[in-house]
Design goal:
heterotrimer, B: 306 residues, mainly alpha, MetI-like fold, C: 294 residues, 11 helices
Chain lengths: 285, 306, 294
Amino acid sequence: MKKLLGIFFAALSMVTLAACGAQDSSGESITAVGSSALQPLVEAAAEQYQSDHLGVFINVQGGGSGTGLSQIQQGAVEIGNSDLFAEEKPGIKAKSLVDHRVAVVGITPIVHRGVGVKNLTVTQLRQLFTGEITNWKQVGGKDLPVVVVNRAQGSGTRATFEKWVMNGRQPLAAQEQDSTGMVRSIVASTPGAISYVAFSYVDKTVATLSLAGVAPTEKNVTTNAWPIWSYEHMYTKGQPTGLTHKFLTYMQSEQTQQRLVAKMGYIPMTAMQVARDAQGNVVRK
Amino acid sequence: MDPIKEAMLHRSHSAKLERRGHLISLACISLIVVVVLAIFFFVASRGLATFFTNKINLFTFLTKSTWAPAVKDAHGIPQVGALPMIVGSFGVTFLSAVVATPFAVGAAIFMTEISPNLGKKILQPVIELLVGIPSVVYGFIGLSVIVPVIRTVFGGTGFGILAGTFVLFVMILPTVTSMTVDALKAVPRHYREASLALGGTRWQTISRVVLRAAMPGILTGIVFGMARAFGEALAVQMVIGNAALLPKDLISPASTLTSVLTSGIGNTVMGSLENNALWSLALLLLLMSLAFNLLIRWIGKKGEMK
Amino acid sequence: MSAKAIDKMMTGVLYLIAGIIVLLLAGLLGYILVQGLPHVSWHFLTSPAKSFEAGGGIGIQLFNSFYLLLLSMVISVPLALGAGIYLAEYAKKNWLTDVVRTAIEILSSLPSVVVGLFGFLVFVLQFKFGFSILSGALALTMFNLPLLTRNVEDSLRQVGFTQREAGLALGLSRWETVVHVVIPEALPGILTGMILGAGRVFGEAAALIYTAGQSAPALNFADWNPLHIASPLNPFRPAETLAVHIWKINSEGIQPDAAAVSAGASAVLILAVLAFNLLARWGGNRLYKRMTAG
């Protein structure tokens, strides 16, 4: 027993020592929290940045856009990642935050491979999600009941999809999943299923749909011919300084945009021929 | 001075140790209580904000069946009706307890009465391993094996309370089994001897004496298992479909308090109604586990041997 | 049917139930291993994860899992022992003790995501530990303590009263009796509880996502000074564990081989839990033999 207690206190003192020591030798470190859709990109960029700059540590965590925005608002972290404009999120005072757009993500409807439909109008797509169309044969497909898989309420992807497809209508209450991987595997394995994911998650297990003849491609997003897309934002509280500033500059640099962003399936900011604001107004660049 | 007198006047080494031990253990328990109180206070303060700050009617919260805190209804009141989740949570919890109980009690009897040797060598490690499988893995096996099977056998999408029940059954089996084993072991040996001496067979002894004497302990185990099922999140979320709908049958997508809480919490902003409403669900979970605990205590009191 | 026939039949039924449970586990294990083992190689076990390319491993995650487990056990076991001893030996039988016991049991049925968020707001933000192993270990402690405490208390209670009387009769104080007589006797029970707790800790993801974090920075395995930030022993670095990694690549992973990595990691996780169980059981038996006269 005494031995056990001894070990315990030795370990405790080690931890305390480390606590004091870590502050000294930590070098410079910042933390970015938020959107899980943006997380892989920031992680990869941070990895590269750290290998170029020794003694620099960039922690990238997920947790969702809501977490990212509320933590940056409280000043608890250096960078808050979000799929949405801060203005679009209730409970966030967007005035105090500075927006850094680092990439664009296109979102496409995905369906189970056996539905027999390749193209829909936006109205048909909306009716599928409101529950007015309940069988795929109503839109020229096979005789299969429609199974709607939605994203979690409040998720960035869902907000974007609803903004550009639902036209203010409420989707029917249906399955809700909070992660892209789950949505994709459910759609892949459930006959008649429909949902939506970011372009980079589309693979052979699911089929995409064209909208009124426009295919979900990066090129169509850059011209806004495919309207369902959103910026990936990295918010800071006030103007960034020090390492935060350097890292954000690195994220937005021509080199990162051209190489990393494109390679990972996001659309580079530099490729966009249009710009869009928080209200959804589109201007040609 | 007289050495005996001196020894009597001073506190002995043992008494000092005793005091120290008492204090150390008291400190440990106090720390735990402080942590529990902190969590309770934390969840309650956020969960109650829905009703006090956002002025949602408690009755509406418990009985309405539309869950869309971000959307206002015709009267401008946000739609926070938690009934579908409450029904879903109770549904999977009771069903999984119903399925798990015969297996758990059977396995426990096997381990204590029929073949303690095989039980110790094979069943005990097996049950401990079942605990060690992470819930994420249970979820994926449920998604890739159980859901398709249900879809082919019963039709529908395969997601729903039935799939949740199967996954939870395996997850609570270890809890219920090991607590039933403890209860059976606590039955005094002379009870069994008395029954056997009267000419009872082994099964008569088990069913009419041992099980009856261990009943309060077994019930406690079952309720404990139900409490675990009630709080399980990741695995259930993957197979139940997570749709905030009142379940029509066992194979239509439904949701539980934890599944909605887990999937929504990262997407809401601290302090907003959407966030508070989710904390209200957490508070409901806490209160439910309080209720389960009071039930366990009540069973324990009733079954105390006098 | 005669009583004997019923007895035979029920014995058969019980064998059947035991068999079904063993088969169930065998099926589960078999499924996980068959899916996962083909992807497990020395390279997979030792190399760091890749964020978007194929060919990533789980080396750092594996180390993190063990380190986090160790740290959280170092914190929670002494606490649980102390609290369990108090409840079993010192606590008076009154309403206050009842309230305390109820409070502990409520903590055990809390969904782990709530524990995780509490840990995030308190340890990560309030105490400024950041996303770190320490925050994760503390969150896991909160999640593990109720079960461990309950288990210690139960194990101590099962030790016969005559053992305590013998200790007291020898002139030992109550504390000495507990430490030298009761605990050694209760050790196998306590140990089983710890193994179960460790298994739960090892597989826990939801409580860690917001505390230990989801990133696994590269580690310098030549540097064992816990004060250095790249050292594997530093408790203040963010640490993604194996279970969190499985959760992450399944939810948002864009690696082309995400499914394979996930299956392989699950298999490794199961094997690690298995190895841990066997090791703890073996070590526990030896300890029991040394501490008692057996």
